Predict the structure of NIBAN protein.
Amino acid sequence: ASVSEPAQKCCTENIQPFLTSILEELMGPVSSGFTEVRALFDKEVNEIIQDFQKTNDMTRLKENVDQLMTLPFNSVKMEPCYLKVNLLQELLQDLKSRFKVYHMDFVIQRTQNFMQELMENAVYTFEQLFSLSHQAESAKVATTIEKVKLRVLK
């Protein structure tokens, strides 16, 4: 009871007025990182479609889809996504000094983990939806892949 009132006053006067601007600043790099994840997924699936249209090879298509499933764990391909979030390091340094917030690396690491998780969910969902319709005739496979991709991105 003796701490509650001063703590609430401190939060109301020293933290709450800045929360909106802090969130806006932080959301820029976070949003661009997640946008990059989306773009990477889109690009990889488009490459699968283009390869299938050139080869019309169902075995190679399966290999490409299997390869897509490893995308979240491919640090080279995921790196551009992670780099977008590294911009938080500079923004968080300002918060660290103003509000005595520590463990900034944890915030960045958790954001990157969420990005990897999002990619895992996207490729898993793609694989599940595509495997259901995989029996389609080969002339419609590219169209089916595109529809599944759009559904996952939605």
About this structure: Residues 3-153 form one domain.
